[in-house]
Amino acid sequence: MSDIGRRAGLPIATVYRIVGKLHSWGALERCPDGGCHICLRLWEKGVLAPRSELIEAARPHLAELCRRTSTVATLAVHDGGDSVCLLSLPGEAELQGVLMEAGRRLPLHATSSGLVLLAQASVSLQDEICDGPLHACTAATITDGAALRSCLAMVRRDGYAVVRGAFTEGRGGISAPVFGGDGAVVAPLGALRVTQLLSETRVAADAVTKRIRTETPRFTETGP
């Protein structure tokens, strides 16, 4: 409880009251050591969100991308200044890369998915990210606002983003946008040539876009 209070900036009495209500509702479960963890009730509510439809629309195409390239395939969306992983499917053997946990957040300016999402985001969000401090995750991270704006213009022009070592040294990714669902399909750079991986990734992203626009009309109003 004290950890929650410290991180939330709330008095311990308030934390006890809120946690008690969440526990009664089924959102939190108490652990034997006195801590808490998220419970099934939140997952039940989460699958009712529109994003769950985006996940199901993307799943078969990400699975095909995994099969054709033997790499991890990931679906991400943006939330504020972060990209958020919605779905990550494993590849095979030495090409599989790192399987990302659903819900993991990564900075927009330091990842291929983030650059694709930011390039298609509102001008106000682009200004906020480019004008704000840009944390250097590695020596390859873009930390200059003008350089980031130039990079975003190139991503919009080319329709994809390739990043090498900007978030984690020795690792990279390639991403293509999903239009109509505010998303991006991501595959890690590995032994495959960039041109081959780019082609497969864009095919997957285009297939997800088509499925969203034909089967999930609510997303067509949200833009890219």
From TrEMBL:
Keyword Transcription among record annotations: yes
GO biological process, one term: negative regulation of DNA-templated transcription
Protein name: Transcriptional regulator
Residue ranges constituting the IclR-ED domain according to the UniProt record: 41-224
GO MF annotation: an example: DNA-binding transcription factor activity
Biological classification of the source: Bacteria, Bacillati, Actinomycetota, Actinomycetes, Kitasatosporales
Keywords attached to this entry: Transcription, Transcription regulation
Matches recorded under InterPro entries: GAF-like_dom_sf, HTH_MetabolicPath_Reg, Tscrpt_reg_IclR_C, WH-like_DNA-bd_sf, WH_DNA-bd_sf
UniProt keyword Phosphoprotein present: no
Coiled-coil ranges (or none): none
Pfam families per UniProt: IclR_C
